[in-house]
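Ligand: nicotinamide-adenine-dinucleotide. Inputs:
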Amino acid sequence: MEDKVSCQSLVGRSLGIRAQPDVLITARQPLMAEHARPHAERQSPKLPWKVKSARSDTRVHDTTSTLQRTSPTSPLPQKPRTQPPAAVDADEPPPLPAAPRRSRHSIRSARLRVQVAAHAVVRNGVAPRGFRFQPCGSAEFRWTASANSNWLVDPLNGDKFIKVAEVQGTEIKPFVESLSKCPKHGLHNPLKAPERYLMYGDISAKAAHMLGQPMVSDFFAKLIQRVSPKSYQQALAEVQVSQKFLENFCGDQVRFLARSFAVPGNHLGQRSNGYHWPYGPVAIITPFNFPLEIPLLQVMGALYMGNKPVLKVDSKVSIVMEQMIRLLHDCGLPAEDMDFINSDGVTMNKLLLEANPKMTLFTGSSRVAEKLASDLKGRIKLEDAGFDWKILGPDVQEVDYIAWVCDQDAYACSGQKCSAQSVLFMHKNWSSSGLLEKMKKLSERRKLEDLTIGPVLTVTTKAMTEHMNSLLKIPGSKVLFGGEPLENHSIPEIYGAMKPTAVFVPLEEILKSGNFEIVTKEIFGPFQVVTEYYEDQLELVLEACERMNAHLTAAVVSNDPLFLQDVLGRSVNGTTYAGIRARTTGAPQNHWFGPAGDPRGAGIGTPEAIKLVWSCHREIIYDIGPVPKNWTLPSAT
Ligand SMILES: NC(=O)c1ccc[n+]([C@@H]2O[C@H](COP(=O)([O-])OP(=O)(O)OC[C@H]3O[C@@H](n4cnc5c(N)ncnc54)[C@H](O)[C@@H]3O)[C@@H](O)[C@H]2O)c1
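Predicted complex:
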């Protein structure tokens, strides 16, 4: 029999925050260490953030009792005691120190304290009906279940592990009404409720502080790992980027986002002011691969600028953002400022059409992006597919380092980054450098145990194999390494399980029509195409880059300034890394991340991204007079 904790959703009673995930977590949920906690502590858990029960504690105890056989702290059900691997990415912050192994009952160990805290968050985060949060001075609200729900399948073993609410098309009215309560001029703007800019500075400061607590960041990293399997470092980096982002918008930094300007007019009393104006009711749709970073950064950006968002995260991973919203509420986020829905794409599409948000930010596949762009008649900004290229220039150097960056770019998170290296153009000078052999060796270090390779959530093994086979029909193509399914695993068939794979395709063949479409198809998994070019073939490489449709990230790996200048000057990708340490992946909070070459292109992370995506320009021309004393009526014009 499964041990379960059931969870209800928050409803903003007065303002329609409605129908949230009804999450039901089985005993395999990794973050619960109830068995190791003394009874007294179980009754009164130490929480990373404050939670208050609206009713008696009885239900909590009941819930606790169902957790007593819960176990591991590792994301892997099969190998619960796996330690986080050693740091593999110098560009990422070092991992938290791994706690020493201790007795199961030694509640004083640092590791256990983290487990206990993490468990407390999960347990209370998935509180039964009757629980309600009381965020500082805000309206009361609670989480409630929708009529229907879906079981999520554990990507690691196929077991049912999370039961998520599925709001149906017939249940969207409260969301529509809630959005309709927000005027087009937003919840705040430079001329209305400016104190809310400061409030958001405060909320960011508190949330940054909370997320910076090792027990909280560890909790979120493990929760991310559990639903979107990736190595501990990759998951933790996502939390740390989110934390730094929040730090960046503390204090006055939110109001500085809305900095306006004034231009003197033509006569006394006239001046024009340019303002960053909100859109008011807005929608945010995000995918599965960054369960915390993408929705959090976009939601906060929307809120900072005065909008009221309804957020939909891919249901497979929405528990992570649900937990984050609870944290934000406790840091002062007014419950009525945002809505959170769990539904499938069809229902969300319906909601968009009925609620008519003034702006929608979509992050996900190009297929859905194009449909929504048409349905919403262009009132949308897009962060869509990435077919990301890397060009190795003629100057061969730092081969070990570059092999490692290639491995990280193509295969970290099992290739499920929109910025993942999809194609590598290698100058012929690299052929004898041993680069490909080194990349092969590095790819073979990846293993399921520490999730350096793991389940692919949107492409099956069969689909990846078929894609590889169609590439192999192209003359001169061959498998460089990988090309086989993972072995000895229990990943269910609905997900993919493939060894890190590289397929070589000759450049001239890539450019042939028919072949080009196959080669440049985004495979959201551990898969890349490799090719070579001679000195006089750079034009062909640039032609290939020009013909691609997705212009998200790119890397030009060279320290030859003329080569860099040439390639950068004749390409467009929105986030392009240049220089010998260039990579294709990496969306930290300190630089813009987003596609270019598309007027609908959005961005994430920086003040510029927030202003571009979440505000429109409004100009107010003040003309207060006085009217000149000698003014006379002019003739008609
Ligand atoms: N450019 C970026 O910043 C970025 C970041 C992450 C992922 N991606 C892209 O996302 C894709 C992988 O994610 P995915 O497969 O989950 O994408 P997806 O397009 O299938 O789903 C993304 C989100 O859209 C929702 N959705 C689906 N159909 C919808 C509809 N008709 N109306 C409203 N919402 C709908 C899904 O439920 C999900 O929440 C890849 O193509 C990847 O490159 C891009």
